[in-house]
Amino acid sequence: MGILRLFSNTMLRIGTFRSYQIVLLACAALAVVAFYYFGSERQNFSSTTKRIKETQASHNANRNDADLSVDTGPPPEADQVRMRRTHKQAELARHYHALMMFTKLDRSKGLQAKFQVAMRSLVEHGRFLEEETLLLHFVSDDASRQLGEKMLPGLLLDASFKYDVLFHDVAALTEKLYPIVEAMQKHFSAGSGAYYSDSIFFLSVAMHRIMPSELTRIVQLDLDLKYQANIRDLFQEFDGFPPDAVIGIVREMQPVYRHTFWQYRKENPRSGVGDPPPEGQPGFNSGVMLLDLEAMRVSALYNQLLEPERVARLADKYHFRGHLGDQDFFTMIGMEHPELFQPLACGWNRQLCTWWREHGYADIFQLYYHCDGPVYIYHGNCNTPIPDD
Known about the structure:
Blueprint: H1 2-39, H2 45-54, H3 77-93, E1 95-102, H4 109-125, E2 133-140, H5 142-155, E3 162-169, H6 170-188, H7 203-210, E4 217-221, E5 225-227, H8 231-235, E6 247-251, H9 256-260, H10 262-267, E7 284-292, H11 293-298, H12 300-304, H13 308-317, H14 326-336, E8 341-343, E9 350-351, H15 365-369, E10 377-379
Parallel strand pairs: 1-2, 1-4, 2-3, 6-8, 9-10
Antiparallel strand pairs: 4-7, 5-10, 6-7
Helix pairs in contact: 6-7, 6-13
């Protein structure tokens, strides 16, 4: 009996040891899976949106202010956990979103050169706080995306700030945009009809309807820009928006809309439509835009202006027929409802094109073209060379 009892106890200990080993191995396997699943999360718009959504409750009124205080004392263990969570939430809440159209880049060496100038100057002058991240959104086709994936690592190599690069499929966005902007395209597109492909040129007009609600602010930028200042400072302009404003934008610096509104101006010579600043309404240039997507979502007036009958009514009133997409739309509704727009200093979009000076407006051109104050961003529109540093 003693031998049997000894054998039984030995087997019991062995069985317990094996169960303990199995538990340890199972825990180790789960840890490895968790590490690779969460540690190698793919950076795309959906995953970023998910993280932002998880921390939306921690957002405060001023999302761009950072806590620069430092506590050098070692806190208790429980406080360390709370601090790590708070830091993670603050980090996710401080994302700066910038979007650029990135289509047909593979077909144009000139556009590729402009893109390199833009990105290198953005990196050179860009400065963000340690807990902040710049998210670069590129709306692209497959070929341009492949090219961008090759170019961007080198262009962003010297960045002193944290960033993520996110590509959006132009076809998918166009499919979402088309039902919203189809009716307005005939008024503001170069073609004679509302071409499906033209919809993407109205992305800024309806971005608030097709992007996730967690994305509340974004800056849309042309590729033919050269940055002379920290792009973070541009985002601070959101804080100066008056209550009714939904878009921050710079005035047009040529008499484009003096020409476009010629019939309305003839019928209403005292209106100021198309006149130069500061008293006139010269229209807008869409090379640099601050889109307060949350304000766009809640503005009843702005969303009413997207309705086809309202667009048609205003186009008839102003005898408007344009070809510059979103820029034309914003200019037209800005004549009627300037309160929707926050005018930015001309230095944030210092347009360099002088085409209209040589096409009938030399005598008044400088009234539109002048820009007092520092230049933060050069805009080489209509293929105008940008000055060297």
